[in-house]
Amino acid sequence: MTDHIETDVVIIGAGPVGLFAVFELGLLDIKCHLIDILPKVGGQCAELYPEKPIYDIPGFPMVTGQGLVDNLMAQIEPFNPTFHLNEMVESLESIGTPEAPLFRVRTSENGTTFVCKSVIIAAGGGSFQPKKPPIDNIEAYEGTSVFYAVRKMEMFRGKKVLIVGGGDSALDWTVNLQPIAKRLTLLHRRDAFRAAPHTVEKMRSLVASGDMDLHLGQVSAIKGDNHVLEGAVIRKDDGSEHLVDCDVMLPFFGLTMKLGPIADWGLNLHENLVPVDTEKFETNVPGIFAIGDINTYPGKLKLILSGFHEGALAAQKVHRYVYPEKKLLFQYTTSSTSLQKKLGVAA
Amino acid sequence: MGVIHVTDRAGQRHTLDAIEGWRVMEIIRDWGLPIEGLCGGACECATCHVFVAEEWMDKLFPPTDEEEDQLDTVVTKPSSRLSCQILWTPELDGLEVTLAPTGD
Questions:
Q1: How large is the ipTM?
Q2: Which fold has domain A5-128+256-342?
Q3: Which one of A41, A202, A294, B27 is separated from A345 by 20 to 30 angstroms, measured CA to CA?
Q4: pTM, rounded to two decimals
């Protein structure tokens, strides 16, 4: 291993709980890198409910999902954490001993490798991945004719493209791919779209001028041969069905969460959750911790505030792995000059 | 008190005691049937998608725009609803729903 990042802790998941762990670790002089599969920080708070008010964060009578994330980012700023977004942790191997844990963490997209003394899994419900429509045999076409994201537009030049969905992704790619596709069809379950109004207007004018097709209904089956798509059967609300010719299908149904590779890391699992103790929030593997919605223990409540507490306690044990020789002095930010220096607020 | 009937993805029908003021998603989850309810009932994920038996469709409050937006993210039928948006009341005693398939 020549090209890797050495750090104290890798935090998997940059949701509210992962972000606050940076603060608790930072007060103890522990450096960390955070990895998240989303292109932005904040996890579910930012992805699922940025505008939704949250009423049970201590000290905030009301804060939105995004507001909470913004505040946490401001709070951890003094500790300068490094974020690796758009990356998913693919493998986690132990290369140390139970007394002196050491881990090698690898991500998929850019293939970044980390070597660290502790790992904190703050992965919530798992990793966000495209929601796949329940269509028989769709897996056989994934990567050849069915795509859940557009990486290179050129791939779709001269193709008969079927886009499914009614949100921003579906509408954006409809107007972007229409000029290069041989024929573009947009399929949505109803004649209402929750996308930028000008994009919806643009789509409507393309339909009006006959330059693309809009169908209302659902894909009930796909037809093709040997991973090559030939058409999709569209079912309307009245139960009637018809076939739309297409070479590629792009379903844009938003994101959902899947446990993903965590299942392969040698951790005990209980119903897709990671059991931990309630003193250190450590898993069955010394040096690997799990905090927030991903963990389970007797009495567990999936609340953001529980995750904050769990991060604070986990940090205490992480300190013993990172600084085995140092005695940990418990201090308050209100009174400790040394903590205030770390926060950049010392007088 | 009353009950709801829930047909799981294997086709088995379960009769569950219902609790007034609980969302149908919460009743189903509390009984341990496989319903995800990822966002916790905030109408933000559509992982509690169910099909409501035809004779019950008219007895429910119609879906809000927010629910319709979420239903856009799954493969629906005319009988599709998000079970987190159905608050159980005694008028819904005997409500019949089927868990919608998931993509994986």
A1: 0.84
A2: FAD/NAD(P)-binding domain (3.50.50)
A3: A41
A4: 0.84
